[in-house]
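hiii, so i know i said id send this last week but things got crazy w the move. better late than never?? heres the sequnce for the chain we talked about at the cafe, plus the structure i predicted for it. fair warning i was half asleep when i ran it
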Amino acid sequence: MLNAGKAGLAALMFGLCTADACADEAGTTVHIAEGLPSVTVLHQGRPVVIERNPDTWNMIEPDYALTSRPCPPFCIQPVVLAPWVETLGELELIGYLEKIGKDASVMVIDSRDGTWPIRTGVIPGAIVLPWQKLHPDHASAQDIAEILQFHFNAVRHDGLWHFPSARTLVFYCNGPWCGQSPTNIKQLLALGYPPQKLKWYRGGMQDWKALGLTTVPYEKLP
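okay and structure toks below
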């Protein structure tokens, strides 16, 4: 019988691997990008390392394995939501996550509602703000105004909103079929929020999970 080292080598030579051999191999190859094994971001003031799962046999969880959700409401979203609203990939999102806690002008927002954040976790650095809290069909004008003023740094004058110091907001939800974060972005555009200050991670949690990237447990803010 081959010893563990020879077994691992033989398995790798034939494109197979034991659990130990896969872990050894993946530990040096499953990076976020070439030359970027991990990044550290702040989540609610605590450092969290974002990296990809080193297990090359890791698979996406059942919550995101479904391919055919009924449309409507779960329709495929366009790549471009609106002019000047930038659509982000994972590396661009990570660039914004690295600013959290260091640059007060940036917020990353998880728009998902219900039990989604509890079941599947949250991208490190994001805050959970369910999409209904910015939608006039579900929240009062006063509640929306408080979010705009006290969280997004918008200013209201003579009944109109002004955004000279408004934060850059990065939204995501469940994936390319999810309309929650697009709904929020469109609502903010209707209020006059500058499109250059609105970003959208279209892939959402489904793509984040599919790439084996780190999530953290949902913690309700006080």
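btw Strands lie at 39-43, 46-50, 86-88, 106-110, 127-128, 155-157, 160-162, 168-172, 198-201. thought thatd interest u
miss u guys!!
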